[in-house]
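Thread title: Can someone regenerate the structure for this chain?

I was given the following input by a collaborator and told the matching structure tokens would be attached. They weren't. Posting the sequence so someone can regenerate them.
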Amino acid sequence: MAGLPAGSGTAGATGPGTLRVLQMNLCNSGRAGCWTGRAVPRAAEVIAAERPDVVTLNEICRDDVGTLARSLATVHRGGTVVSAFQAAGDRPSGAATRCDNGEPYGIGVLARLDTGGARPVVRRGTYPTQDRADPEERVWLCVGSAGLLHACTTHLANTSGAVALAQCGHLLGAVATAIRRAAGPAPSLFGGDLNLRAGGEPDVRACVPPDYRRIDDGARQHLLTTRGVTICCRRSVDMRGSTDHPALLATLAIGRPPG
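Best answer:
Regenerated them for you:
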């Protein structure tokens, strides 16, 4: 199936392809109290051990994307690994938020995709709703292949639950709808630290459309998928104190896109 990871298993023409998705918040800005300097090497170890097809990354520096993309390419030799980075905005300067080392700071997506020779489509944006008291402007990022799969990530506001909920609603509403209109009925997955919990106040489930599937790490990291995708086999992966979040790993089964 074009657009699924090269080599993904399929069960006949109408059967699902499977892929492993890994969500990680690496706290690698160098400015936060959770920074250790060990998160990226540990993330590379996890990628080597777990062999994901898609990796969604939060709280990273721009060069971390290249480092971890090379780790993913080493795991999946012969496949095509695509990657993208989106810097969070910095309201006071009007430029990008920066890591302590001077690199842009933000979010990233890595994916082993069968692009069929076509360039992957990257979509990105800044949320219209922001906490004006927080200088960091939150963003979203999606990478798509062959009109059949879109992998997205985000890191929502941590200073206001109401703002995080509005950002979540925008991502799963306006952004997801725009992707569907542009690319057809392609399944999408969303991985990220939403800074919202199931059962919390506000409750993350208030922004999730009824036909989406959702799992979490028992806290603020979530994986969500649109109709046509089944999530199974959720597991937390120990980051060994290198960051303040475990990694979240899941297996997805992708059927024929809904008509």
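Residues 161-183 form the longest helix (23 residues).
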